[in-house]
Amino acid sequence: MNKELEHSFVEELEKNQNIVHKVCRIYTNNQEAHNDLFQEITIQLWKAYPKFRGDSKFSTWMYRVGLNTAITLYRKRKRSIKTETFDAFQYKIKSEPYDDTEEEQLKLLYKAVHQLNDIEKALVFLYLEDKSYKEISETIGISEVNARVKMNRVKTKLRTILNP
Amino acid sequence: MDELELLKKDWKKNEDTKYPKLSYKEIYGMILKKSSSIVKWIFIISILEFAFWTLISFAFKNTEYNKRFESYHAENIMIPFLILGYIILGYFFYKFYMNYRTISATDSAKILMENILKTRRTVKQYVGFNLIYLALSAFIALGVQFDRDEEMISLVEKASANGEIFKFYAVTIILTLVFLGLLIAIILGFYYLIYGILLKRLNRNYRELKKLEV
């Protein structure tokens, strides 16, 4: 029984692992931290899996557990030494030729996102993932109105970071 | 273009190729590893706290002081006091365990944080209870000693013969208070440090969420 559960879980996660990578991308800025967070999210997903009833999609459920781990549950395993900054950490964003100004702007944007606090990062992440405000508010646990208000503030904050 | 729209455009680009692809085996390896989550740490520290206070009460059992105390025959006060202590310990342990069980990573971020803080609060109340219990026991013990300890009684008589009875009581009580105060300050400082470090991020994020509601 347990083996079966393990198998179905690992298979699902393997299929949907991008979601976890994306959470890690928002919350960490070097390879080591990325792997460490990925590991913890995987453990938390696995621990919560027996309670996953399938009344929501596996991927939807993953967003919730993934963000909860990043925002609340996660504690660094090792003291991570900042060897690589996010800029150097490649997500193969350069696979297509960008014009220089856009590429430069994107770099600054990612850097700015990393300066946001944990809750703001969660909002940005869910926004980038095209989640509705309803889903955003349910994942974070605030009202839909407040999610909208906060999202607007985050946009302003990003703009201020980019154009001080 | 809106900054976030630009980001989103890039975010969605090449989604399938830009992230690492972990194999079935690698993911399987991960679920066998141990979690290092904050909840686990709170759980471990709380258990240590319960153990610490229980051990303290046992450590007192065989001391000289305790033996001398037994000779006062103050069981009618001490035994109910002890039983009360155990009942309250049981209550806190039950409450802590129930709180711990409600923590679920599938709740919303806010509820999850609230549930974690709730287990923390239970342990905090337990520690508070222990400190009050400690202070009360110290004063009950002092009262019993004034009443039944021969050495103490002779000291009281001597002091009263010299007309310094008030001073004697005052000094004894103040010394006890100072000693208790120091002990409590050390214990509280220790907790403050541990939980301050452990819960710094959680408290910050919880405050941030709270702020959104106003």
Automatic annotation (TrEMBL), chain A:
Family annotation (InterPro entries): RNA_pol_sigma-70-like, RNA_pol_sigma-70_dom, RNA_pol_sigma70_r2, RNA_pol_sigma70_r4_t2, RNA_pol_sigma_r2, RNA_pol_sigma_r3/r4-like, WH-like_DNA-bd_sf
Domain RNA polymerase sigma-70 region: 14-79
Domain RNA polymerase sigma factor 70 region 4 type residue range list: 108-158
Any one Gene Ontology molecular-function term assigned to this protein's record: sigma factor activity
Pfam families the UniProt entry points to: Sigma70_r2 (PF04542), Sigma70_r4_2 (PF08281)
GO process terms (BP): DNA-templated transcription initiation
Gene3D superfamilies: 1.10.1740.10, Winged helix-like DNA-binding domain superfamily/Winged helix DNA-binding domain
Superkingdom in the source lineage: Bacteria
Keywords carried by this UniProt record: Sigma factor, Transcription, Transcription regulation
Database matches in SUPFAM superfamilies: Sigma2 domain of RNA polymerase sigma factors, Sigma3 and sigma4 domains of RNA polymerase sigma factors
NCBIfam families: sigma70-ECF
Family that this chain belongs to: Belongs to the sigma-70 factor family. ECF subfamily.
Name under which the protein is recorded: RNA polymerase ECF-type sigma factor
UniProtKB/TrEMBL annotation, chain B:
Residues passing through the membrane, by range: 38-60, 72-94, 126-146, 166-194
Annotated keywords: Membrane, Transmembrane, Transmembrane helix
Name of the protein described by the UniProt record: Uncharacterized protein
Organism: Xanthomarina gelatinilytica
